[in-house]
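Weekly structure sync, notes
Attendees: PL (lead), two postdocs, one rotation student
Agenda item 3: pending single-chain targets
PL asked that the sequence for the first pending target be pasted directly into the notes so everyone works from the same version. It is reproduced below exactly as submitted, 416 residues in total.
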Amino acid sequence: MNSNPHAPGFPANPPQKEGWQLVFQEEFEGTAFDERKFLPYGLAHWYGPGENEAAYELRDSCLVLQLPDAQKRISAVATGMRDGLHRFWEQLELRRHVRPAMNLVTKYGYFELRAKVAKGSGINSAWWMIGFENQLQQNAEVDIFEVLGKDTHVMNSTLHALRDPKLKYEHQPYRAETDLSGGFHVYGFEWDENGMAFYLDNQKIWQTNQSPDYPMVTLLQINESDGGWVGELDPAVPYPKEFAVDYFRVYKREGMPMELFPAETAQEGENLARSAVAGSGTDIVWGDLYEAKSHICALNDGNPDTCVLSKPGIPAPHMYYLDWMEPKSFNTVRFTLASDCHCEWAVEVSANGLDGWIQVTDQRSALKEPDSGSGHLVYKAKFPIVKGAKALRLIVKSVAEAPQGYRIADLAVFMA
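Predicted structure, written out during the meeting:
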């Protein structure tokens, strides 16, 4: 495929846009992939190491996402990620902990992409966004476009409400006069508190008054399958199959939230866990997209009535994570077990959330006491002040008399 950004199609827009401030951009001009903007993988926590990494080239000032052969069915990049995000299939299980990233996890703005989609039945070129799920219901999906290779005149735009009760499903296929795989085209997405609008080559093609009111992550991907919505896989289409992106830009106008990712809101003396991103290893029992009754956001939401349920049959130790974007100092950890079971546990901290884990608790000095009125058990440990930690993990070594799993109601971190 010729990914030349000067190929026939629609010309690139200038970076500046009247009435808007450019707050994020990736022009793909360099020779190296910039992981401070996009992550070289998609929903990595549902896959083993190496299974979900993107295949790509940086060519002709473009990111060219590739399916190099029949064994690679998806290549995706994302502006942010966290454990458990977007459980799109009921059989999915959390395979590993991946430290969260928030290069661009934002709410509202004008988003613009110039791209050349792939042609051929069985292929899908997509630009989509998903809620970051800081709360259980914040998981809507917005497909700005999905262009199926079996009919590259049609731009499919869709809102999937999923668990968000304030939204409803909405889908709009738009038939373009031109073959969108024949050259580069400019796709736009405008989003504010009043609704969303979708653009092709600077022309608004449809709008809705529905609007997710929480930060979302952006993904770019090419994927293929054999049958279903994308069509039967055409064996005559050669590999590599490619989806080329010339640039990606984000704009904000006056009055919109300007931050690129959610601010850490915990103040001095408050529960620092509330400003962390919660995660887990393979230890959580997950609901589906529509009824995730054991969701990782319940781990640090400060609400003892919401619980994370451990997965039966996975031998201890089990690990639960809190990750901060900025270093923290603290000396107290408290977690609430929503059952009357004895628990052996420990806490480790890391300066980067990746390695160098240091145990800070002494089980002999940990306290256990009942939570009045709830029947929960509260475990608490105080230790010398930890400074400069960007991650904490709770290690559950054993829980007595809990063959069907145990429930963690809350995990809290303080400077006391």
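Discussion points:
- Residues 21-252 form a domain with the Jelly Rolls fold (CATH 2.60.120.200).
- The chain has no helices and 25 strands.
Action: rotation student to compare against the earlier draft before next sync.
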